[in-house]
Amino acid sequence: MPRGRYSLHDPHDHTPVGEEHFQCAPGPSGWRYVSQITAPSGDHAGSVDLTLDELGRPIRLELHAASWQVRGAALEGVTWVRTDPTGTHATEGNVRAHAFTGTSPAFLVATARLLRLTPGSPATRVRLVAFTDPVLAPRTVDQSWALVKSEAHATDNGLLTVDEYQVSALDTGEQHIVHIAGDVVLAAPGIELEDLETPPSVFP
């Protein structure tokens, strides 16, 4: 069960925005990721709880940030309920999308798991619902993912396969590179892996 810590920063000006302490593991249903997010001050800033089925679809999502809450799942596309800090107003949403995304590294692993790309295959288009900080506002985004290459690197625990993805935002044309090993993001815009206690899990 990998557990560790990501540092999060603004991908444009590199201002620190917090840390995400996580643990994740494959399980009978697919894969689960849980984390606690802290602000640069050290104060608690939110949490992520994401469970995927064996095909990579989100069967349960729970996000907390700034007292806002989102619960969601893959249902007729993706469906979610967003609750305000007072708990008196809840709004439901549904979009014909494939999955969810957001600032947590969990969503990069989840999208890669959903798409199951192979090196050299054509870029694949995916529609996602992004929950943007700090109030978890939903926004539908279209991305293109391509697996550029997979390379095996020798480590103290044996070979570690690192996948390099090129992710393109289809509305702006902006492109960036994401490096993933198993169920851990090694590097991505705004994300750095600072500490990892156990090796990444290998998906079957």
What is the secondary structure topology, with strand pairs?
Blueprint: E1 3-9, E2 16-26, E3 30-38, E4 44-53, E5 58-65, E6 68-74, E7 78-83, E8 90-95, E9 99-101, H1 106-115, E10 124-132, E11 137-155, E12 158-169, E13 175-181, E14 184-188, E15 191-196
Parallel strand pairs: 9-10
Antiparallel strand pairs: 1-2, 1-15, 2-3, 3-4, 4-5, 5-6, 6-7, 7-8, 10-11, 11-12, 12-13, 13-14, 14-15
Protein name: Glycolipid-binding domain-containing protein
Organism: Streptomyces maoxianensis
Q: What tags apply to this protein structure?
A:
204 residues, mainly beta, 1 helix, Glycolipid-binding domain-containing protein
Task: Describe, in short, the structure shown.
This is Glycolipid-binding domain-containing protein. The two termini are about 15 Å apart. With about 200 residues, the chain is mainly β.
